[in-house]
Specification:
With about 475 residues, this protein is α/β, with parallel strands linked by helices. It is built from 14 helices and 15 strands.
Length: about 475
């Protein structure tokens, strides 16, 4: 377990905040290569679960040739569908070998892999001049986000995209149009919520050590699975999606769903980084995996002509936030008492948000779900004043591939997705420490807690992975 004492002794990357380094990436000279029939040659790292869904989505666009498959558990049940779709495509267990042997045969990389694994694959791709699509959240530590943004800016011909797919759907274009038209203005507060059951909700929060090692299934390259993080002996409570539960490896409910709920709010309200993150409630907090329920308050300062904004995040099946009068479409269980002074306590509230401005209140869902003005009477009053919302010219996968071909720009590049992901990194730090984080958004340092300041960088990379952090 990482303690304050041993962490501060070993976190050499995190002295005085952290050093970003001054060495530019030696990326190969970029030369755009278009495959047959104007297609992008795509190498895929992670071919099961979400990674597999990403590959299918890229393939359906008709803009990609899948030329390499990589997975540390190649041949397992959850990889069979993709392997069957592309039976003659070369296969690898280690992405580094894939780059070594096939780097001259692909133009872009998609990475549908665990949160802690995003950084090394993305940096390798950018170093070699390959376009990179990486699933959300973009990074697991604040420093990783900073270095990924820096690398992308140093190599502007490399196309980057984070996989918050709703950023290419209705909510993206509606939010922008309503913001530009002055419909969304003077926002002061947002409530965001994701109250579905999570993998760790059945675990014992009285945990006092990491899981005991188990016999490893045949065929897994577990050393590569661990990437740059401290080595974790094999246990099925880490593998196949369970990594999301652990502070060492994943970003919990906030990192998983925040990018689908708060993305347009963060971008179009130009929120940047918060000056404070306060864990208002953490149920069954422990030092290893995420709380059963969390309420987090993110405070953002005034920007330009926009007022300060407070975002309150709720997760946990028993931590459903109150909704405003006139919300509509909510089932109410009279046997459940109201919380936080709310007049309604929904039996179930879909993932989404409520946005409060000085004049209007909006409700919205997740991913590409569009906003509604509430209550209904106000929506009818505003109907004639709403601007026309343009249609999306491409979904998120086609947007990435078209950007690789020089025909569009990505909507969630690292310079946009990175600060959003760093907001989640600060939220996870507040969860992990169960302490308020006071943060300087300009100096990018925690000002009230040296241990939290060291956590911005995380532990030093595992032996053999140090070069990835020299950006």
């Amino acid at each position: 377990m990482t303690t304050r004492r041993n962490f501060l002794k070993t976190a050499s990357l995190a002295s005085a905040g952290f050093a970003l380094g001054s060495t530019r990436l030696n990326a190969a000279s970029y030369k755009q290569i278009v495959g047959a029939n104007d297609k992008v040659n795509l190498a895929c790292v992670g071919i099961g679960f979400q990674g597999g869904e990403d590959i299918k989505s890229f393939y359906r666009t008709g803009l990609a040739n899948v030329v390499a498959l990589c997975d540390i558990d190649m041949g397992a049940k959850h990889t069979q569908e993709i392997m069957a779709m592309f039976p003659n495509v070369p296969r690898f267990k280690d992405f580094r070998e894939m780059f070594d042997k096939m780097g001259n045969k692909f133009d872009a990389v998609c990475a549908g892999i665990p949160d802690f694994a995003h950084y090394p694959v993305a940096i390798q791709a950018i170093k070699e001049g390959k376009h990179i699509f990486v699933e959300k959240p973009m990074c697991r530590t604040f420093l990783e986000g900073e270095l990924m943004i820096k690398a992308a800016l140093q190599n502007p011909k490399v196309v980057t995209q984070m996989g918050n797919q709703g950023h290419s759907e209705g909510n993206y274009f509606q939010f922008k149009a309503w913001k530009d038209a002055g419909i969304i203005k003077d926002v002061t507060a947002v409530t965001a919520h994701m109250n579905s059951s999570r993998r760790w909700h059945d675990w014992d929060s009285r945990i006092y050590k990491y899981p005991e090692p188990q016999e490893m299934p045949a065929g897994i390259d577990w050393d590569t699975w661990n990437m740059a993080v401290r080595y974790h002996e094999y246990n099925d409570r880490y593998h196949r999606g369970n990594w999301r539960c652990w502070y060492d490896l994943g970003m919990g409910a906030l990192g998983d769903w925040g990018a689908h709920i708060l993305d347009t709010i963060h971008q179009f309200l130009e929120l940047g980084l918060p000056y404070e993150v306060n864990p208002l409630m953490l149920k069954e907090h422990n030092d290893y995996f995420f709380p059963m329920s969390s309420t987090l308050l993110f405070r953002f300062a005034a920007r330009k002509n926009m007022p300060a904004v407070d975002i309150t995040w709720y997760d946990g099946v028993d931590n459903i936030p109150p909704v405003p009068e006139g919300y509509g479409g909510v089932e109410v269980d009279p046997n459940i008492p109201p919380v936080a002074g709310g007049k309604l306590q929904p039996q179930k509230l879909n993932p989404g948000k409520e946005i409060y401005s000085k004049e209007l209140t909006f409700k919205g869902g997740s991913h590409g779900s569009t906003l509604s003005i509430i209550p209904e009477e106000k929506a009818k009053e505003m109907a004639s004043k709403l601007p026309e919302v343009p249609k999306s010219p491409s979904n998120h996968y086609a947007n990435f591939l078209l950007a690789c071909l020089g025909k569009e720009k990505t909507r969630s590049p690292f310079e946009i997705a990175g600060p959003l992901s760093q907001v989640f990194c600060l939220g996870v730090m507040a969860q992990r420490l169960n302490q308020k984080i006071e943060f300087d958004p300009v100096k990018k340092q925690v000002t009230n807690n040296p241990f939290a300041n060291a956590l911005l960088a995380g532990e030093p990379p595992r032996s053999g992975w140090e070069a990835y952090y020299n950006v």
